[in-house]
Amino acid sequence: MPQIPVKLSLEELQALLEMVENQLFRIKFIDSKIPGHKANPEKQRAASSAVSTLQEAFKKAKGFKNKDAA
After folding, report:
1. DSSP code of 33?
2. Contact 7, 38 (CB under 8 A)
3. Does residue 8 contact residue 16 with C-beta atoms inside 8 Å?
4. Tell me: the pLDDT tens digits for 3-60?
5. In this structure, are residues 44 and 51 in contact, taking their beta carbons and an 8 Å threshold?
6. Which residues contact 58 (CB under 8 A, 6 or more apart)?
7. pTM for this predicted structure
8. Distance of CA 58 to CAs 7, 38, 66, Å?
9. DSSP category for residue 18
């Protein structure tokens, strides 16, 4: 899958991360209880991966050490 470089300010990244974390929570725990909901595990995996990528970028921008750099 091609990757797209994007430049965001720290504030923009933080706001985006909050929104996608909330949306992912909704996909995982709320939507599944709605009658007629059709699960889409591939979409959920892609969303989880995106959230992880954003979290790592945010931590790096804030100066936290990478979890793999120990």
Report:
1. G
2. no
3. yes
4. 888 898 999 999 999 999 999 899 888 988 999 989 899 988 998 998 898 899 889 8
5. no
6. 10, 13, 14, 17
7. 0.71
8. 12, 32, 11
9. H
